[in-house]
Amino acid sequence: MSLDELRRRIDQLDENIVKMLAERLSIAESIGHEKAAGSTPPIDPGRERKVLDHAISIASAGGMTSDEITEIYRSVIKLARQRQEVSVAFQGEAGAYSEAAALDYFGSRSVATACESLEDVFKKVENGNVQFGMIPIENSVEGSISRSYDLMLESDLMVAGEINLRVNHCLIGNPGSTLDGIKRVYSHPQALGQTGHFLRQLHFELIPTSDTAGSVKLLKEKGIMNGAAVASERAAAIYGMKILARDIMDNPNNFTRFFALGGHDAPPSGDDKTSVVFAVKHKPGALYDFLRILAERKINLTKIESRPTRKKAWEYNFYLDFEGHRQDEKILFALPSLEEHTLFFKILGSYPKAKSEGN
Ligand SMILES: O=C(O)C(=O)C[C@]1(C(=O)O)C=C[C@@H](O)C=C1
């Protein structure tokens, strides 16, 4: 076949592919309406796994690799998710990193509601005002967000998903301001911490606030010309502000991990994690005994974190993430023995592992 003929063939195929993709997306939209009517969670990782496996099995017969079809289907499913409207609450103002995480995870069609505090995010989901809450859990440079952990302990909400987001901080000021004229910098303490080197070099006075994008909004509303905020490029665009410096993080590999919280956790997807919180008896080897069960059963621990119980001084709760779903046989059989070694034990949820270290 000549080049022209081959290209004509591609054009014909594309016509069919596009028509079929459009039809597939519109079916996903109808499924979204059905789910909303029945209060079913929009994202179904188990079904997504089956869809992908099905596509892989057909593709290999047609001479396509599993990697090739997986790349295409990840995009198709992501777009299908975006056709299904989800309501999600986040802490901060429009332009916050949590909002970006929510839109990335649930799709740009989802309705993201800004909340003043993390407590409000929990309340909105608990009261049924929104389907999900997107909360930051830990940052790869500054560590855990302790308030999120403390709130999860008290709440009945469950972890239904996780997403890692690359954090690219900018220094943002009012239009007309210059870097030389900046005296004070406003932002969330985590963001000030992640850009400490840059900020100290320029001898700015640091003003901690409750969120990054809210600081940009404050500068705008008050017309502050000698102040700047550490926030995302998106926050600068939303409020029509000027970027004075880009990529000001101490460590360019700056990621934040977020949890999507809902009324229940996610069904098994085949590649999951489980988060639990527990306390052990005050006796030698108590934590070791607990961890030994995981080691013996070859359950891979991905994170451990301790927080004061705040009931008694120097007593701690442990937060643990491990690979596997609580319904997977290996985990299901380990749970009673794990629980036996604790004073209290709570499953925060099982959810599909984030697809990447950060987007
Ligand atoms: O089957 C569904 O429940 C759908 O919503 C469709 C679909 C898909 O595109 O295949 C999209 C999102 C869900 O997470 C699972 C699958």
Automatic annotation (TrEMBL):
Which EC number(s) are documented for this chain? Answer: 4.2.1.51
User: What keywords were assigned to this record?
Assistant: Amino-acid biosynthesis, Aromatic amino acid biosynthesis, Cytoplasm, Isomerase, Lyase, Multifunctional enzyme, Phenylalanine biosynthesis
GO CC entries: cytoplasm
GO process terms (BP)? chorismate metabolic process; L-phenylalanine biosynthetic process
Q: Please state where this protein is localized.
A: Cytoplasm
- Coiled coil start-end: none
Q: Which InterPro entries match?
A: ACT-like_dom_sf, ACT_dom, Chor_mutase/pphenate_deHydtase, Chorismate_II_sf, CM_dom_sf, CM_II_prokaryot, Preph_deHydtase, Preph_deHydtase_CS
Q: List the transmembrane segments.
A: none
Q: Check the record and name the CDD domains matching this protein.
A: ACT_CM-PDT, PBP2_Ct-PDT_like
Q: Name one Pfam family in it.
A: ACT
Offer an example of a GO molecular function term for this protein: prephenate dehydratase activity
For this protein, what reaction is catalysed?
Answer: prephenate + H(+) = 3-phenylpyruvate + CO2 + H2O; chorismate = prephenate
Point out the annotated site residues (description: Essential for prephenate dehydratase activity): T256
Record's keyword annotation contains Nucleus? no
Question: SUPFAM superfamilies attached here?
Answer: ACT-like (SSF55021), Chorismate mutase II (SSF48600), Periplasmic binding protein-like II (SSF53850)
Pathway given in the UniProt record: Amino-acid biosynthesis; L-phenylalanine biosynthesis; phenylpyruvate from prephenate: step 1/1; Metabolic intermediate biosynthesis; prephenate biosynthesis; prephenate from chorismate: step 1/1
Which function does this protein serve? Catalyzes the Claisen rearrangement of chorismate to prephenate and the decarboxylation/dehydration of prephenate to phenylpyruvate.
| Protein name from the UniProt record | Bifunctional chorismate mutase/prephenate dehydratase
